[in-house]
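SEVERITY: medium
COMPONENT: batch folding queue
REPORTER: lab tech (J.R.)

DESCRIPTION
The queue accepted two submissions in a row. Attaching both inputs and their returned structure tokens so the on-call engineer can compare them side by side.

ATTACHMENT 1
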Amino acid sequence: MGTIRTPGRGAGEVARRTGTSRSIHRLAAEELTEAFRFYRREAGLRMAQRFLDEFEHIARLVERQPELGTPAGADRRSYPLHDFPYSLIYTTDERGLRVLVVRHQHRDPTHGEGRR
């Protein structure tokens, strides 16, 4: 059973997921929380929850089919959220999916490059 920290149900709460293991880099979790808070502040809780739901949807999708993402460097892939200007940068191995960066698409494309 994998775990991932999700700000949608309160920052720091751990949501448990079945299937392969999933983890999120500490800085990616901070980026996710920052984006969630931005949408909550600027557009309301409903929009913030939509953002988090989309993140979860894409994370589950690439967890099941990691090859869907576009190659983005050494053993990394990128997959965009559909309704928000963010992409997940991730890697997979025998332990499962590892979300390395939750990157705004207008941010420096090298942001988070050194994360493992």
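ATTACHMENT 2
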Amino acid sequence: MKNMIFCILLIVVSFTSFAQYGLGSNPSEALLKDSLLKSTLNGEVAVYENVNMSIIPNYTEPIPSDELFIITRYIGDLFLEKGIDETKSGVVNSGGNTRMVINTQDLEGRGLYSAIRGGGPHIWIAKRSSIENRLNPWAETDELVLQMNAAVPYVELRDKDGRTSDHGFTDEQTPVTQLSFGLYLHDQSTQKTFAYIIPVYESRGTYAESANNSDTYVSFISSPLEDSSRYITKDSDSERLQFKPFSEKKFFKVSLTKENLLKGIRDTDAGMSEDLSNYQITFIGVLFELPNYVENGHNTSMVEVSDFSVSIK
């Protein structure tokens, strides 16, 4: 299994017409309030929540509960003033389309790129649920569904000798780019936190899923978006895991069923309960991350995400 490091973070920013999100060109205030209240109180994520997210850079502010946010880590906050491009790391949301850039040369020049325990520079689009609003989808129903549209238009990986490639480098040669669905689960019986990372883009290509991984602080299952994966179920309409850059957005959709979750729990060494009614989702979203540090290696990666949603079936 290729070494993958999953780190904890949270959420982003902006506003536009609701027409493209199925609410009509002039949604009533009552309809909007009812819809927002529903998604907030049951812990799910509606597509229109992508439109008006706030940005929390480097955890400098408390992270509110029950709202979709953009959260950054280890990339500073210069982008709030200077914006982003291929040379400048950061995140911008425009009408529900979130563009994210991580450039390690930029970070290194500002003293921000170094070996880090528990992960690397990353950006989350995510929701943290309050205790009373935590999802417990496997207590009564069968599956949790996550989906989004995403593109990875630019990835340049450069090893310590200056060689470049779109993919194929090992951990030791150059930084790695990942775009993934991610979620944190709390087992009420053991009081343990456990996580899932489900890559839709991995610059090294696909890999064998594993139930025994750790980011130093939290154990997690790593399962690529593939038909063959056992710990998740790839939707038939979804694209599989990508490993080369692509400019046109692709549709990604995954389910986490009772059967998937139980297989992962039984295969992990983390000592989790097999009673699925004990599991609450504390944090869920989309993670853009450069999970490893490579001295003298550089990575410039750009991704776009829209229409992220979470539902229970």
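NOTES FROM REPORTER
The CA atoms of residues 11 and 70 lie 2 Å apart.
No errors were logged for either attachment.
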